[in-house]
Specification:
The protein has 157 residues and is of the alpha/beta class. The chain has a single domain, classed as 3-Layer(aba) Sandwich (Rossmann fold). It is built from seven helices and seven strands, in the order βαβαβαβααβββαα. It has a five-stranded parallel beta sheet with strand order 3-2-1-4-5, with helices on both faces. A two-stranded antiparallel sheet has the order 6-7. The protein is globular and about 45 Å long. The structure holds NADP nicotinamide-adenine-dinucleotide phosphate. The site of NADP nicotinamide-adenine-dinucleotide phosphate has 23 residues, from α1 and α4.
């Protein structure tokens, strides 16, 4: 199984390192290709660098380790490539003001997950995504090779 990791900052970089340490293949993408190539080189043969589009196309699961506004752009743009894949969304509705103080970027009661689920214009709802993840887990149980990372799907943060 190959995991595409879009964004290789604090979260994406950590997820990439953990997956590779567990023997998993990753394909990495971000805006600065030189950072991506440097991390892929550091992680070794299980990691490679790609464009965002190629990474999504090649991944069986896709981790969007980018800020919520970026995810709002990327998910609709690549909706067709995401069809049938597990999408992992670690986002929070958090921004930082000029003094570095965190603030909530969405109204109270609105979750980042609900925004991302709406952005997924492929028509897959979160419920369908959970069903897809369960089918994936059942498939993995039938295969002898253990995976380091399971499907992560958010539900309401
Ligand atoms: N950090 C935390 O403790 C934490 C905890 C929980 C959840 N989260 C969530 O995780 C997400 C990522 O946070 P982070 O702290 O890892 O952010 P970060 O360190 O700022 O990394 C963001 C990454 O996104 C990439 N990126 C930006 N625009 C892009 C685009 N258009 N296409 C592809 N890649 C793009 C950046 O690439 P370049 O550097 O090449 O521009 C960078 O690698 C956020 O939604 C955040 O809310 C973070």
């Amino acid at each position: 199984m190959t995991t595409a990791i879009i964004g290789i900052g604090k979260i994406g970089g950590a997820v990439a390192r953990h997956l590779v340490a567990g023997g998993e293949s990753v394909v990495l993408a971000a805006t600065d290709q030189s950072h991506v190539e440097a991390l892929a080189g550091e992680l070794g043969p299980l990691a490679r660098a790609a464009s965002v589009e190629d990474a999504i196309a090649d991944g069986d699961a896709v981790v969007f380790a980018v800020w919520l506004d970026t995810m709002r752009e990327l998910i609709p743009r690549h909706a067709r490539l995401l069809e049938g894949k597990v999408v992992v969304d670690p986002s929070n509705p958090i921004g930082f003001d000029e003094s570095g103080q965190p603030f909530r970027t969405l109204p109270e009661g609105q979750s980042a997950g609900s925004v991302v689920a709406r952005a997924a214009s492929s028509g897959r709802t979160l419920r369908e995504g959970v069903r897809h993840a369960r089918r994936g887990r059942a498939r993995r149980r039938r295969t002898p090779r253990a995976t380091a990372g399971g499907a992560l799907l958010r539900d309401g943060r």
